[in-house]
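=== RUN LOG ===
request id: a7f3
mode: sequence -> structure
chains: 1
length: 109
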Amino acid sequence: MASKVAIIGDRESIAGFKPLGIATFAVEDAREAGALLEELSAGDYAIIFLTEPLFEMTRPESTGQRGHIATAVVPVPPLKGPTGAGRAHLDHLFSLATGARPADPGGLS
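=== RESULT ===
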């Protein structure tokens, strides 16, 4: 049964996760991230965090993994700031689950 947690991203963005007991994997490009994502999801990893820029570039691979085995691939903002990919992905999942579009958080007080 998968039970480990990992994060894949640039070295600076993932450094703070190691003290939390999360396995960190620094990669240089989307090709390397896609191959690593495939390898980790076939192993003992239940949750794999992926920095937003890599999530955007490897979207076909990360989307395919969830159907492959019970591995959650979760986009997280990089150290330089969010790209919006994580929010867009969550909005998409919300729409799939409910059939409705999420409310715009800018309109909430």
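=== NOTES ===
Helices lie at 11-14, 30-41, 52-57, 59-68, 85-98.
Residues 4-104 form a domain with the Rossmann fold fold (CATH 3.40.50.10580).
=== END ===
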